[in-house]
Request: fold
Amino acid sequence: MNYIVLDLEWNQCPTGKAEENASLRFEIIEIGAVKLNETLSLTDRFREVVKPQVYRSLHYKTKEIVTLRAIDFEDARSFPEVAEDFIDWCGEDALFCTWGSADLTELQQNLAYYHMPSPFSFPLLYYDIQKIFSIVYEDRKSRRSLESAVDFLDIPKNIPFHSALSDAHYTSLIMQSLSPDQILSNSSVDYYRTPENRRQEIHLSYETYAKFVSRPFRDKVQAMKDRTVIATPCCKCNKTAQKRIRWFPVGGSNYFCLAYCEKHGYLKGKIRLRHRRDNLCYAIKTVKAISPEEAYAIREKKEVLKLKRRLRRNFNTSRTP
Reply:
């Protein structure tokens, strides 16, 4: 087993969204990776620039961030050539680690654009070191930049940031401040591919919460009628917890609820409804153990939202001729 610490640099349409390719919003222009063994020791590196085929000029934001120049692309190979070599280099027993949640999604999008087979199993679990850093060192919610985390750990900054290999290198050094158990017990789910049916639905348990990813639904109304989606099993004992506050919208496509387990106390449920590329929607649900104070805050939030809706209705009614 090896950890593949991956970082990508990508480009986007330099002339704006109106002219972008809908099948490839972000085109990979550099792949960098570090390979660590089971004890988190460095064993190998991979780095290659990719010749852009879709967006041949760099977007101004890309120019501001990445260290690549036009001359770097002159002898570069195409994405299918580089990606094939990268996948072979990773090996069959790879566990993928990234700083943030975007890299593996964009890698799969680029593979799909070139009709290349995906090497990833389903579901694709990976390790978001940015999230794990927050779990171990901070409040579980904040998300530091890579350089800020490097500074926090007093890691020497011997090479520049914002090249794929250097950012993968710094991410691997942050990993080496963690234990393998801290990493392996905090996996993340990549949502590029989501369950197609009930049998594929994803159920995961962690130390402080449980996660569920649903099959697709026609719309959010249908999703919020599904018994599995709206169920609130306790994240510690998996027994059905009694709802104290039923699911209520908190803006956009997010919903909260409050439940109570006789053995483990209050639970906060959160559902995020997202749309897939085929415009069907799916649910990502988390159920988390919380304190009585946090439970009170959920009650207050619902009351505030109810009051705002009432005021909005009254305002609209008063304006009706």
Q: What stands out?
A: The mean pLDDT is 94. The longest strand covers residues 2-12. The two ends are 70 Å apart (CA to CA). The chain has ten helices and twelve strands.
